[in-house]
What does this fold into?
Amino acid sequence: MSFKHKHILGIEQLAKEDIQLILDTGDAFKEINSRDIKKVPTLRGKTIINAFFEASTRTRLSFEIAGKRLSADTVNISGSTSSVVKGETLEDTARNIEAMAPDIIVIRHAHSGSSHYLAERVGCSIVNAGDGAHEHPSQALLDLMTIREHKGSIEGLEVAIVGDIAHSRVVRSNIYALSKMGARVRLCGPGTMLPIGIERLGNVEVFTDMHDAIKDVDVVMMLRIQMERQSNIMLPSLREYARFYGLNPINVQLAKPDAIVMHPGPMNRGVEISSVVADGVQNVILDQVENGVAVRMALLYLVSGVESMQT
Amino acid sequence: MAKVETAILDKAGITRAITRISHEILEYNKGCENLALIGIRTGGDHLASLLQASINKIEGVEVSLGTVDITMYRDDLAVRGNLPIGKTEIPFPLDGKRVVLVDDVLYTGRTIRSAMDALMDFGRPSTIQLAVLIDRGHRELPIRADYVGRNVPTAREEDIKVVFNDKQKPVEVLLVKP
It folds into this structure.
């Protein structure tokens, strides 16, 4: 089967077969990252622009390394040093970039729907690296890849996601991804952070009590409290949040003994996750980061293949 | 219009070819010191495994075995789009090794060119030799095989298929006329 999506805007548009192809391709690319010479000529001559209008360590580096290891010409621009600070609109920015003939634009932006907006207006491929609180498809895919690696298959697993569900694009992408692959998702957070109707997005059950949420789960995924995305009135204090919704060495034992602990990063140590658990044996957080490069290489490869077949 | 398939090599013929190629490899390389077999996916990987077993039977030594997937090194990705990528597994260092690349059918030579580029990214073999089951002619690059199971002159419209069973053993070689 071949991959027919010109853009990666979200997991919502992907079928189960697409996801499996991305994960299998990621496995093949992962091998390159352990070689001495971490480069293959696959995307030689292609130009990839990483346009990050929001702060990022992992995702930005990951996409840049992914592009470079595929021999593509990868260029980064960040919002704070671009003409966006002079008031240039997103559409103008994109059209100007497009005039320089990139093959792929990878975009992270604070507004939900920004990658769809771009995809409707420019001709090259768009890869969503996170749009507002909407989707973060590459994160969900690397999460799936990590779960598959440690658990063998995703079907039938119980996955708990705990944190600021309302403002998390990681959650939405993961709900779609895990539901399509046959897992069951348990969302947990304080009532102020649980959007009404979120269970409609997939195979989801909602909890406000963390002990119920993580009991006997196979995977515990902790989300960061997003201080930059919501006002502090949603929480009485970080300490109270940590007490009721933080993962620590005691409550982590409620999950299955072989459960894995995940976090998309960056972590607020001592808030949503205690350092002991974050650095403990069950955590696969750094595996997630390693798989992130492989999954993004897979996305760039598959998307550029669709593009060339259309020219 | 239905295609006409003729078997040009049966199981016994394939086995004899593999045995002969194993002897030729050992003769030319004066034994199996530093020898490594690397099969090209797909097809060459199964044949490399058979060569390893055959050499083991003759010399009593299990030579190093690896697999290379050349999709990432193809020269036609611009028109072929995104082909599925298989895993490359070379679990030993290549520096100083006498590598024998193994493929099922040698045709234009472009796959072998890609395989050599892939190997160079892993290390510096001391030599690279090529063993193929079938050489069907029509080279487009200056590439030649060192060990050939059978030379089968073909027309460009024809096709050669090496058929494997579900245990990855070659069953027969078919010539497919359009």
Q: What stands out?
A: The mean pLDDT of chain B is 94. Chain B has one domain: 11-75+83-154. The helical segments of chain B are 11-28, 44-59, 77-80, 110-122.
